[in-house]
Amino acid sequence: MKKDFISIKDLTEKDIQEIFILTDRLKKDKLKFRNILKGKVLALVFQKPSNRTRVSFEVGMYQLGGYTIYLGPQEINLGVREPIKDVARTLSRYVDAIVLRTFAHKNVVEMAEYADIPVINGLSDFLHPCQALSDIYTIREKKKTLKGLLLAFVGDGNNVCNSLLYASAKTGLNMHVAVPLGYEPDKNVLEEAKRIAHSKNASIKLFYSPEKAVKNADILYTDVWISMGQEKEKEIRKKRFKNFQLNSSLVRLAKKDALIMHCLPAHRNEEITEEVIEAKNSIVFEQAENRLHVQKAILIKLLR
Q1: Which residues are known catalytic residues?
Q2: What domains does the chain contain, in order, with CATH numbers?
Q3: Which residues, including other chains, have CB under 8 Å from residue 166's CB and lie 6 or more apart?
């Protein structure tokens, strides 16, 4: 692996498989790895509030024997109080790795460019690689394979969707994306993912009809319609996305045993109905748990 984890695009299929195998071991025997990062310190530099990202990294480092320092918006005020390159070079002399959760993706790229230590993308407006890698691991764990399966993503072509496209392509998982016109995933990501998927005998397709996208799908996935920073677009987004709700009618078009996924937090009865998120095939909290285990594997790979 590279010294940073910025995008799943940078990983090979072998890298991903090694992370997944290590994750399996971490889940099976927590005690074996309890001191593997003893003395290591992880800085969590967050411009955005978080539940899963912050808690999973803090708990993960603790379980591996390391420590975390949380630096919220007021402590750093990234790029305002001081330049990102100065923050990167300063933290490189204090800690062993940085998780950056930010708005602009260029902030993660710049942090990685100037830091002498590993930088992990905890979320940007362009990508959410930790989430997507954990999601693919969860599908593998539940279905025992990835090859030949179809993941249908319904909703906004956002950062999670972009990372899922890379992750699906790299692992040979077929993926359908259904979005309203004008809310497509990044064009370059989509085209790159299509090329990579083709080399793995898999396919990635874009739809403007959720019904067509989810037909015979093995996994159904959605995310919020209004992400942090998009609150001013709330009303117009609700109108544009109203036919893209993951509800029981849509679920019936997929396979009977189709898994239901959502990266959380969920706006129940908006992008997903209460009935669907609480259905017996819903694995949203398994997804959330696996953020902890997959990120522990990433930390070990980068810091060992």
Answers
A1: 101, 128, 131, 223, 263, 291
A2: 8-128+291-303 (3.40.50.1370), 131-287 (3.40.50.1370)
A3: 7, 8, 9, 129, 132, 189, 192, 193, 196
